[in-house]
Amino acid sequence: MLRLATRGSALARAQAALAAEALQRHTGAETTLVIVQTTGDRQAEVPLDQLPGQGWFTAELERSVLEGRADVAVHSAKDLPIAAGSAATAIALLRRGDPRDAAVTRDGTSLADLATGASVGTSSARRVAQLQAAYPELKAVPMRGNVDTRLRKLDSGEVDALLLAAAGLDRLGLGPRPVERFDPREFVPAPAQGAIALQTVAGSQAAQLCAAAADTPTAVEVAAERAVLAALGGGCLLPLGAYAKLDGDRLLLTAFLATETGVRRSELSGSAADPVGLGERVAAHLHG
Known about the structure:
The chain has nine helices and 13 strands. The protein is an alpha/beta fold. α1 packs across α7 and α8 packs parallel to α9.
């Protein structure tokens, strides 16, 4: 019986259920959940840029594995710090869901059709930067909390729209709700968005089982995206988007970075055999 450590939110539990299903399908392994509260959960009303350190949604899950209280930590891959996956642990990625960002409004109105000054809730510096670049007439409003909490705030009129990850909406069964999904090469998602990461003790039986459930195309795309983040020395708060798309033996990587002097974009194609090198080249374009 594999013990899967997960946060307690509805979305985290849905992702853990997907992990359990993938492990059962690929390896026959049976699983049970271990609910872990993270720093980000305990301080849900505190802006992320005011929380110390990194790994606000992942550190306690990782610790539960390293201390033997769980066998597998189930993460949203975009939450993993660059340092995650040290020599003590192994990371396996399941097949990625929809990587795109999405806008949700009460009546299905697109962002382009919202009135000037309409409020859009998001806690992401990356989303704020791209919203301001694409829709300068709209107002970004800081908003944290679980997806269901933010949707309740939208429905109660606290904001006119929300920016969320499309995969999260799909996993909560909210995909049919009126949602505007953006072209990921235009409104660039966070590195590894839509992917579920399984973290285990390196060399363990759990690591072998998770490796059997891993998806190679997702691993290649995420490696390129996270290489951009690593090369720029950033973390979850860096206003950076990176989106890689695998096509045969080629990889197309698009990235967005907001700086104090403006918005920078880069898009390059390279060999799928060297996703990290492609990510580093894209980062160099952004930095220059």
